Amino acid sequence: MNIQDNFNTGGDSHPQGFPATVPLSSTCGFDNFGLHPKVMAGVRGARYSEPTPIQARAIPPIMQGQDVIGLAQTGTGKTAAFALPLLHRLLPGPRGRVRTLVISPTRELAEQTYDSFCSLGRSTGLRCTAIYGGVGMEPQVSKLKDGYEIVVACPGRLLDHIWRGTINLDHLEALVIDEADRMFDMGFLPDIRKIVQCIPVARQTLLFSATMPPDIRKLVMEVLRDPITVQVGQTRPANTVAHCLYPVAKHLKTSLLIRLLKETPTESVLVFTRTKRSAERVADHLAREGFRVASLQGNLSQGQRERAMDSFRAGTAKVMVATDIAARGLDVLRISHVVNYDMPDSTDTYTHRIGRTGRIEHKGEAFTFITPEDAAMVRDLEKLLGKPIERRTLDGFDYNKPAPARQATRPTRAGNYPLASRRDSRRPVNTKP
Ligand code: AMP
Q1: What are phi and psi of 131, to 5 degrees?
Q2: Ligand 1: which residue has its CA nearest to atom 22?
Q3: DSSP 3-state of 419
Q4: Does the N-terminal or the C-terminal CB of the chain have fewer CB atoms within 10 Å?
Q5: How far apart are CA 283 and CA 428, in angstroms?
Q6: For the chain, how far is it from start to end, CA to CA, in angstroms?
């Protein structure tokens, strides 16, 4: 399959107020970029046959040292779009000092970006490290003394190192702000501004974001110089994903999920819930039904998070139940289905969630459970997709089953969770899905 087919390449449009966008050359292959042979060895090692649209557009200006705004979401190949040209630029210069800094919103994304630099840069001799919170500071301090050319960092821990003087950024040549809109959602923009004040003014700056809310535009004006914008159609989910809606009463969502998982041929499945507690509760139900399941939510320790991610990546756990924040940066190519157990809070969040399936050369399905109160969001999603979304019902599923009588919402020690919350049992149940 031609990799270009997998992306919404529609957008040569650019966010108002930003200059030139880069046209997509139809003849563009990795060989045409003029990347250093040691970087090309990384491309071959990763078995990338053709650049993705964001790579085709972003690699040439980044190689030339320009500031770039990359409007692209996870799943478009955006990491290699900045990693490859930065490796190329780093190759001729001095070693043993931090020359490229990538700021990531989450530990998981930082780890994945670190992995990408390591594998793509394997033949370059350049060294990369990742630093983030939730793990000991001291091992990072001694690692930073070793001298790395590339540092991938989360904002909070990076600032700790800057204040303690355990990282030297005086020789920085390039700054990458990755998933800027997520940084904003997570309240990191003040930290980003502090970091920018501590690094050299003469540098190349790249900013990647799936969306361009006003606060990110403001940040762009402050930290980038004459940036050019490269964009792939990031505002809509990839066209390799089929979307459908399952109208269902709240108290029946878990039983519907179990039936769907039993009856649908799937590879890995990512289930999104709105709250940490419901992620735990749904995962617990699935485990009791015999599914190999992991859950990711903010209550986990770093070790637990890593184990959950690893088991999902390795396919030991077939189903991952997660909240939006916890699942940031989760990069698993085999996700065949994303299930929105709870409707996301915005169309951007929907796009982010769905971006986990239908990845490069893969097809995916997005199932969204809807209740009457999700009507406005359904309208917004249909507007986003430009067409009505198919409503589905599951044959033989009892949609009229009443909510159980009022019961406690807290899990018992034995891990028994009631199917309905208190609020559910007080509300009228939608009996016409
Ligand atoms: P990203 O958007 O950076 O999270 O990348 C998504 C996935 O696409 C990762 O697993 C990359 O290894 C993979 N990828 C990146 N570039 C290419 C390419 N040119 N061809 C095939 N796969 C790619």
Answers
A1: -130, 130
A2: 48
A3: coil
A4: N
A5: 26
A6: 38
* DSSP string across 130-150: EE-SSS-HHHHHHHHHH--SE
Q: For strand 390-391 and strand 241-247, is the pairing parallel, antiparallel, or unpaired?
A: parallel
Q: Please, how many CA atoms are within 13 Å of residue 275, restricted to the half-sphere of its CB? A: 3
- List CB contacts of 131: < 8 A, sequence separation 6 or more: 110, 140, 143, 144, 151, 152, 153, 154, 157, 158, 161, 167
Q: Is the pLDDT of residue 338 over 50?
A: yes
Using only the alpha carbons of the chain, give its radius of gyration: 23
- Give the distance (Å) from ligand 1 centre to CA of residue 359: 8
Of 97, 120, 98, which Cα lies nearest the Cα of 35?
A: 120
Contact in structure between 414 and 392 (CB atoms under 8 Å) = no
Place 86 in a pLDDT band, splitting at 50, 70 and 90.
very high
**pTM value surpassing 0.85:** no
Q: Which atom of ligand 1 is nearest to the CA of 50?
A: 19
Q: Indicate if the alpha-carbon torsion angle 30, 35, 37, 42 is positive or negative.
A: negative
Which residue do the tokens 């819930």 mark?
273
Q: Which residue in the block uniquely carries the two structure tokens 């199932």?
A: 367
Q: How far is the CA of 185 from the centre of ligand 1 (A)?
A: 24
Please check whether residue 341 is in contact with residue 257, taking contact to mean a CB–CB distance below 8 angstroms: yes
Percent of the chain with pLDDT over 70: 82
Summarize pLDDT for 87-97 with one digit per residue, the tens.
Answer: 999 999 999 99
Residue closest by Cα to atom 19 of ligand 1: 51
SS3 label, residue 153: strand
